[in-house]
Amino acid sequence: MNQDVTTGRADRPALVVALLLLVAAAVVARDAYSQTITSNYGIGPNAMPYVVSVVLGVLGLAHLFVAFRGGLPKPEAVDRNAILWLTGGLIGLIACIGLGGGFIIATAIVFSFTARSFGRQALAIDFGIGIVLGLAIFLMFSKLLQLTLPSGPLEHLL
Amino acid sequence: MDTFNALMHGFTVALEPTKLLFALVGVFLGTAVGVLPGIGPALTVALLLPVTFKLDPAGSLIMFAGIYYGGMYGGSTTAILINAPGESASLATALEGSKMAKAGRGGPALATSAIGSFVAGTIATLGLAFLAPWLVEIAVKFGPWDYFGLMILAFVTVSATFGDSPLRGLTSLAAGVTLGLIGIDRLTGQARLTFGVPELLDGVEVTTLAVGLFAVGEALYVASKRFRDPEEIVPIKGSLWMTKEDWKRSWAPWLRGTAFGFPIGALPAGGAEVPTFLSYSTERKLCKYPGEFGNGAIEGVAGPEAANNASAAGTLVPLLTLGLPTSATAAIMLAGFQQYGLNPGPLLFAERPDLVWGLIASLFIANTMLVIINLPLIGLWVRLLAIPQPWLYAGILVFAAMGTLAVKASVVELSMLFVFGFLGFLMRRYDYPVAPMVVGLILGPMAEAQLRRALQISLGDPMILLENPGSAILLGLAFIGLVAPFVMSGLNRFKASED
Q: What is the domain count for chain A?
């Protein structure tokens, strides 16, 4: 498929993973260092984080090594539009719950945006389906399971 | 026998009408969700966990048993009919199963997988029932150091068995363990890695991580390459039933598959991948019709399916007796136990025998229900498979959001779901296994607690881990497991991972 093994150039994704792991190792170590509570017996709450930090560091270095030895498997091309719609749907979901829009509208947003990202061209119809689905789930949860999902203007009408 | 009496008592619990109803609902829901393409048993259990929130522990665990087995069965239906295994354990089934379906023998393929699952599940559950009390007796003698050694061994085997690169498996595991650090330290009350966000004080929910990685990650992954490989459902033609010939060719693979699946599943090694492929290659060698293998040989479905189900029951052995999850599904089930304040392990057998044995008994019941309701309902499941992909994934994401909001209705929780989703997407793209991360999240804090308990007893002397034969052996095995793949494949590994 590809002969990158021999080119000797660093593999970008592997470098990024290496960097992320090293940063995570530093963050974990820093957090452990700044802890204020210590334990009188055995080991304190900062011991495990130090161990984890070392492991993350070693894995980071291993990725650095891999970056120059072939790198990570090469992924397929991405359909950017699909990812954007899906991301939009998820952000819409978070925003809707955060701004008090309620579960039903949030459901409709996720449902219609996801369907759009998978290639359906009927946003309005799917939004309607999403409303019905959200309503059904909300009623099932509140009436049958006595669990309350986030409420907004639509839910207060029920 | 004691075990026999305990099991009979379990049946009196599980056969109460309400409990039977829970089992039925679980089996039905599990199959319905598990049959959807792209949803494996782990995600099925994670998505349906919130539904069981308000039930009593016994009822919800019984429902869980049904969901678990139902999800497994649904997964193999998908593997056979659209050649889209929802998880690696169904890969072997898909090889021959999809060929059989294409050759118009989808019915017998589904039948042998259902009946094989039943046979394997029943034998393996019997194995669980008789092995568990014996293991519990050993487990009560375990010190914290032994548990620590066992967990380290599970860490290594779980990250080495999933996926084909130990480095990527370990990285996934380490990410999970790191997430496990987040929150208030249970022993001292020290907040760790919370960055001043109050929602993080309780730690990361296992279900949020699992749903994010599996559901959102999978949706993003499939969407990103959707124009590439359209999935095709193979319609079921001809008879659903197995011919006499089919029966004759199936029964031995069922038993052999069970013999592979249960012991390997019961080891703290985890993963149904190894036994299913062992079974597949064994059946391939033993098959009297070698020409058929690769073109839809029924042995190639019967064996791996039995192995898959037997190993699923096998993973319940370490989960129930030691509290040790060795698969993503088991990790989520453990989270389900914890939500009721129950800690699986030897103590649970002593304190809540009704619950443990009720659960084991309901595994038998769920298994029986599956084979009874699934063969007649196969038409319904096939129709579920035909849901258009946009609606299917839209629905999956709605359920993901629902599950997360039902656990904790906060923007922080949803944002974590979002972040984990992208992480899962990227991990899939670059071939990092996601299951070790889920196991790491739940097992990491447990390993830490055992280590600290051990070191408290030894007054801080770490040599206690090597002075006790049990923990020394377990840690030695873990070390060998960690080093062996790097030493054995040497430098070739980097070329091999390129493929």
A: 2
Q: What is the pLDDT of residue A116?
A: 93
Give the tokens for residue B112.
Answer: 């042998």
Shared domain check, A60 and A122: no
What does B164-207 look like in DSSP terms, one character per residue? S-HHHHHHHHHHHHHHHH-EE-TTT--EES-TT-GGGGG---HH
Predicted confidence at residue B163, as pLDDT, reads: 61
Beta-carbon-side half-sphere exposure of residue B366 (alpha carbons within 13 Å): 34
Contact B214, B424 (CB under 8 A): yes
Cα-to-chain-centroid distance, residue B121: 14
> Which of B167, B222, B224, B486 to mutate to probe the A interface, most A CBs <10 Å?
B224
B235: buried, middle or exposed (CB in 10 Å: 19+, 13-18, 0-12)? exposed
Residues A52 and A118 in one domain: no
Do residues A89 and A112 share a domain?
yes
Amino acid at B469: P
Note whether A96 and A125 are same-domain residues. yes
Contact of B177 with A52, CB cutoff 8 Å: yes
Q: Give the pLDDT confidence of B200-220 residue by residue, as tens digits.
A: 888 898 889 999 998 899 899
User: Do B401 and A130 count as a contact with CB atoms less than 8 A apart?
Assistant: no
* CB-count exposure of residue B230 (10 Å: 0-12, 13-18, 19+): exposed
> Rounded distance, CA B487 to CA B476, Å?
16
Q: Do A93 and A148 belong together in one domain? A: yes
CA distance B154 to chain A (A): 17
Give residue limits of the domains in chain B.
2-498
Same domain, A88 and A41: no
Residues B82, B73, A86: CA angle, nearest 5 degrees:
55
Query: Do residue B430 and residue A117 have CB atoms under 8 angstroms apart?
Result: no
- Tell me, yes or no, whether A72 lies in a domain: no
Residue B152 in contact with residue A12, Cβ under 8 Å? no
Nearest CA to B72 out of B311, B351, B266, B399 is that of: B311
Residue A45 · residue B188 · CB < 8 Å: yes
Closest CA to B280 of B308, B300, B305: B300
Q: Is residue A74 part of a domain?
A: no
Instruction: For residue A51, tell me if it sits in a domain.
Output: yes
Q: Is the pLDDT of residue A8 over 70?
A: no
**Which amino acid is located at B63 in the chain?**
M
Which residue, B26, B120, B59, is CA-closest to B373? B26
Domain that holds residue A31: 4-67
- The Cα–Cα gap between B59 and B52 comes to 8
User: CA-to-CA distance for B449 and B225, rounded, in angstroms?
Assistant: 42
Residue A44 inside a domain? The answer is yes
Per-residue pLDDT tens digits for A116-150: 998 888 899 999 999 999 999 998 888 877 777 88
Residues of B within 8 A of A41 (CB-CB) are 456, 459-460
Out of A48, A86, A129, name the one closest to residue B448 (CB): A48
* Smallest CA–CA distance from B186 into chain A, residue: A45
Residue in B30, B136, B1 with CA at minimum distance from that of residue B367? B30
